[in-house]
């Protein structure tokens, strides 16, 4: 889901 | 994870380690802007609000703790450690950094991916990080002569977002619907703010001269 992939970066 | 993002994170880690090394070993923060360091504390505090609620990987959580811990300890050293605090040039480090936060919070309230508390805080931290280096660059212009460690710190700090831009390009082409304009534009603005510093840093390295930014 777009939610997680944008938050997998520092 | 890709090589560009790993390089970016390692460069970012190296920048905070260089600064901690300088402050901890030679007990000096001459030429370092406390304002920029305080902005970075806010950047990480608002960026990593989900540190306990969303787990991505050991690496991700570990790095978040390192960035939070290092930014807090740098501010603590510069504010409360007697020997270090004495080397802080308060008269020169006068950038009104709280005024930087206001436009960032307003912009985050206007432009975000989702209107939730976490998303707005996360977006705020992106905008704030883009401009957090400004007090440090202004201080650099004033203090003229820059010691090597401070120069290296800024160079690495500028370089990490440059690697992230390569990471975003790579992910755009390899992951379908990986599109995050807010992240990309603020990351680009952040890297561009270092452009003149990189230019003078390269010149000083090429001519093997002390790094000096024009007044």
UniProtKB/TrEMBL annotation, chain B:
**Domain of life according to the entry:** Eukaryota
Primary location recorded for the protein, binned into one broad class: endoplasmic reticulum
GO annotation terms (biological process): protein retention in ER lumen; protein transport; vesicle-mediated transport
Entry membrane topology: Multi-pass membrane protein
Q: Which GO terms describe its cellular component?
A: endoplasmic reticulum membrane
Q: Which UniProt keywords apply?
A: Endoplasmic reticulum, ER-Golgi transport, Membrane, Protein transport, Receptor, Transmembrane, Transmembrane helix, Transport
Coiled coil (residue ranges): none
| Regions crossing the membrane | 55-77, 98-115, 121-140, 152-170, 182-202
One Pfam family from the record: ER_lumen_recept
Subcellular location(s): the record lists: Endoplasmic reticulum membrane
Q: Name one GO molecular function term.
A: ER retention sequence binding
Q: Which family does it belong to?
A: Belongs to the ERD2 family.
**What name does this protein carry?**
ER lumen protein-retaining receptor
The root-end lineage is: Eukaryota, Viridiplantae, Streptophyta, Embryophyta, Tracheophyta
